[in-house]
Amino acid sequence: MITTRFPHRLIALSVVAASLLAAPAALADDLADIGYVDQSQLSALPAFQQADRELQTYGSNLQRQYIGRARGASQAQQQQLAQEFQSQMADKQRQILGPLFHKAQVAIASVASSKNLSIVIDKRIIVFGGQDITANVRDLLTGIGDPVPPVNTPPPSNVGYVDQAQIDALPSIKSAADDFAKFKADEDRTTATKLRGAKSDADRSAILKDYQSQLEAKQSSTLKPLIDKTKSAMSDVAHKRNLVLVVDRSNVIYGGTDITADVTAELK
To answer: In sequence order, what DSSP letters do the residues of 166-196 get, joined into one string?
Structure first.
């Protein structure tokens, strides 16, 4: 499956991979003030498990209510009901999980400050280096009383991050992504019609091969130039700011250097 966001997500990851693979031994000292947390271990804590069960129960009950209300409703009414359902679920999620997430953020910041870490990121993207502070954070979350926020702000970090959502929202990138999405939707419909009329497995295979080829060609002509340009802008900003890594904001839990504005400025 090809999506409109997947190619852009590769930009940040490719910068990380290039930095790590270039000279991992030389980067060891630079990465000493980087911490990471295994968020799957934190989500397995009893408080999070209980909150998750509560949210699932609420969601199941709410879904039954909306299914009942949707019977006999028009398409427009069903869409409105779906929006109401999503809104209520989001509100409940904030109510149930919000305080726990805040507590976890404070615990992570407290541990990071005590260890003089400039950034804490998600363990999932760690390939080499960094300090695992998961156990320290877990101890604070399961201890007596709430963790205390650190007095100091995180020190300057040589790890940067970009808010991919802001970059995706730039007119040139959004226009290209929308163009690709429309092209794909048209190809999906055309291919579905062809498949319904296919006489053999060989015909279906040829149709799907042509479909994939058309998408790859469109992706190469529409998205790849912007992906390359964005990657180059990130690399240029990283060098100017003396950064050793650039990651996506979604992987940053604490600290880091936000270079989103610098990158978007170069892309405009």
So the answer is: HHHTSHHHHHHHHHHHHHHHHHHHHHHHHHH
